[in-house]
Design brief:
Strand order of the largest sheet: 1-2-3-5-4
Number of helices: 3
Mean pLDDT: 79
Structural class: alpha+beta
Strand content: 25-35%
Low-confidence stretches: 98-111
Number of strands: 5
Largest sheet: 5 strands, mixed
Distance between the termini: 24 Å
CATH architecture: 3-Layer(aba) Sandwich
Order of helices and strands: EEHEHEHE
């Protein structure tokens, strides 16, 4: 499955890159039993063909850098990082100097790194 916002719905992220218009890929997922069989590559190729046909200049997406599958996959599709965000969860533990135990209903604090990736159109 792959889901992408059209440019009229991706205006929130469009200022991150100069080319316009911009689409934003919201979701990319392949069932674990279908991975490494070319399904994700075929879905991404179909998406890229569709955005190219519509004259969309660039496609942006976020992916979890620490996911061992995400970074290599999107890199093979031609995406390159624009910027990186580090997050600590729950953030309240950082803001108030507490511990995870101080935040009711929360699990362990985790650090995550997210990339905003960019793919220019192939036109």
């Amino acid at each position: 499955m792959i889901a992408t916002q059209r440019p009229e719905h991706a205006t929130w992220i469009a200022p991150l890159t100069r080319p316009a218009p911009v689409a934003y890929t919201v979701l990319g997922y392949v069932r674990p039993d279908a991975r490494s069989a070319g399904v994700g590559t075929a879905l991404a190729a179909r998406l890229h063909d569709a955005v190219d046909e519509e004259g969309i200049a660039a496609t942006l997406l976020h992916y979890e850098q620490l996911n061992p599958y995400a970074a290599p996959f999107w890199s093979r599709q031609g995406y390159r990082p624009l910027w990186t965000i580090w997050e600590a969860r729950p953030a309240r533990t950082l803001r108030f100097g507490g511990t995870v135990a101080d935040v009711p209903g929360r699990g362990q604090a985790t650090g995550q790194r997210r990339h905003t990736a960019y793919l220019p159109s192939r036109r």
